[in-house]
TrEMBL record:
It comes from Serpula lacrymans var. lacrymans (strain S7.3) (Dry rot fungus). This is Amine oxidase domain-containing protein. Signal peptide: none annotated. Pfam families: Amino_oxidase (PF01593). Residues 16-459 form the Amine oxidase domain. InterPro entries: Amino_oxidase, FAD/NAD-bd_sf, Flavin_monoamine_oxidase.
Length: 517
């Protein structure tokens, strides 16, 4: 039977609504504090107009259709079936044959045999006639195979290499630096191989599948559906937490809002926010030095996205066409993502230019007008047969390092093994959650996994025996009498799991005018 408490318990959550699953447990009142005027965190869809397909994903944009990501897909289906949410999964095309590659000033197609030599790299034998994808797979295939067969055994092996960077691992395989640079350029983003070996293997585990999905009409429909389940009355928007105070067996939260300061008293609170946001709360408890070091040190990489709306979907009409998928380039724009929605439709379309890490950081230092000018200029080098300036209508961008989520978790060497358990450890009646506190960074599934684990820990603390969180339960389904949290985590892993500042129109008009003039 479901857990019974002697009195109603109150839980406060600082962070995105979809990160924690407590809202339907009996006798638990949940209230959320959201710093933005919306829910979703790094799930953000920007819509240029109300017309169909005139949007881009400024945050999370795709879901691998794998066992590891089943928690996300199951959540979507559960919300649709049980709560009648308008969530429709559609195919997401990661790569298609017509996608262009522009490297070292050489224009190729992804369907070509893109060896190092063909792309202008001068590598020693036997590497010169190999592709980057083949080289990368040869280096990590045994780890991917083990993770696929036995995730826990694979994870244990990864932790033995966790203090080694991915670049150091490849050097230990006697790869020349030039070969490592080639593979990083083609398969990753600049300096990402300086991150931990375990992080890069986990990332490539996701991208080893060919089956991908996304949500029709925008990924932000998922957190919006979850907010509907939680209840809008239980969410305080535009609330920046300024103080957290532990007093006796309770904890108080003080937040500033446009309407003034608000406060709430709770039995437990969950800080479902990135470490950078946690650090910037002016008044909060201080924990032991190892915990504070973990909060300071956990690395989040920069992300930059710009969506550009054009008069036509010209990329679908060139030869060969890009019908979904993405292009890779060594230009500052790095990735060109072609929409998997609205394929072959008439009228305007939206392209997404996407970069991470060092490639993303360079965009933050220049104003929007220069970002847009540079984006169009570089795009024109990949599509020399298209006047992208004439095609241009409008644009919007987002440099995540300038906003509260800051980016996504991608740990440096040793941070998983040294900080992971410490960072997610509860401190009395204060708990912690987020994708950075899962073993599956950067993905919605990581946030869900962390949220479930934290919710289970809280419910267990309210009861005399462990029990699973029954949030948004299916009709007639009740938790088992006994619940093993570690077994549950293993099962989840294996079964699969701001608006604009200033006058942007003026910027865009000046860019278009100067480009045509």
């Amino acid at each position: 039977m479901l857990p019974i408490f002697s009195e109603t318990k109150r839980v406060g959550i600082v962070g995105a609504a979809y990160r924690l699953q407590l809202s339907k447990d009996p006798k638990v009142e949940v209230h959320l504090y959201e710093v933005d005027g919306r829910v979703g965190g790094r799930v953000k869809t920007h819509r240029f107009t109300s017309e169909k397909n005139q949007y881009f994903e400024a945050g999370a944009m795709r879901i691998p259709d794998t066992r590891m990501h089943a928690p996300t897909l199951n959540l979507i289906r559960l919300l649709k079936d049980t709560h009648h949410a308008g969530l429709n999964l559609i195919p997401y095309l990661l790569t298609t044959p017509g996608n262009r590659i522009f490297i070292n000033g050489i224009l190729k197609n992804v369907s070509d045999h893109n060896t190092a030599m063909a792309l202008g790299f001068n590598l020693p034998e036997p590497y010169n006639n190999q592709t980057a994808d083949a080289l990368l797979l040869s280096a990590i295939e045994s780890f991917l195979d083990l993770l696929g067969r036995d995730f826990e055994a694979g994870w244990k092996l990864l932790m033995k290499y966790d203090k080694v960077s991915f670049r150091a691992y490849l050097l230990d395989l006697n790869w020349p630096e030039s070969v490592i640079d080639f593979v990083e350029t083609m398969c990753s983003q600049t300096n990402q191989f300086a991150l931990s070996f375990s992080e890069l293997v986990m990332q490539n585990m996701d991208f080893s599948t060919k089956a991908w999905l996304t949500l029709e009409d925008g990924m932000d429909k998922l957190p919006q559906a979850l907010a509907g389940v939680v209840g809008m009355d239980n969410i305080t928007f535009s609330a920046r937490v300024q103080k957290i105070e532990q007093e006796n067996d309770q904890v108080k939260v003080y937040a500033d809002t446009p309407g003034g300061r608000v406060e709430g008293t709770f039995d437990k609170i969950v800080l479902a926010i990135p470490p950078s946001a946690l650090r910037m709360i002016p008044e909060r408890p201080r924990w032991d030095p190892t915990k504070e070091q973990a909060i300071r040190a956990m690395y989040f990489e920069a992300l930059y996205k710009i969506g550009i709306r054009f008069k036509t979907r010209f990329w679908e009409h060139v030869q060969p066409p890009s019908i979904g998928g993405q292009s890779t380039t060594d230009l500052p724009i790095r990735w060109i993502v072609y929409p998997s929605y609205g394929i072959n439709s008439d009228g305007p379309g939206v392209l997404l230019l996407y970069s991470w890490n060092t490639d993303a950081s360079v965009w933050s230092s220049i104003p929007f007008s220069e970002r847009l000018r540079s984006s169009l200029c570089h795009l024109s080098k990949v599509f020399k047969d298209i006047d992208v300036f004439d095609q241009f209508i409008t644009a919007e961008d987002l440099a995540w390092s300038e906003h509260n989520p800051t980016g996504d978790a991608m740990f440096f060497p040793g941070q998983f093994s040294q900080y992971f358990d410490i960072a997610r450890r509860p401190e009395a009646n204060i708990y912690f959650a987020g994708e950075h506190l899962s073993r599956h960074h950067t993905w919605i599934t990581g946030a869900i996994d962390s949220g479930r684990s934290t919710a289970q820990d809280i419910i267990t603390s309210f009861t005399s025996k462990p029990c699973p969180t029954g949030w948004i339960p299916r009709a007639g389904v009740e938790p088992e009498d006994y619940y093993d949290s570690e077994a549950y985590r293993r099962k989840v892993a294996m079964d699969g799991l701001e608006g604009f500042k200033g006058d942007r129109k003026g910027f865009e008009d000046s860019i278009l005018h100067s480009s045509l003039g």
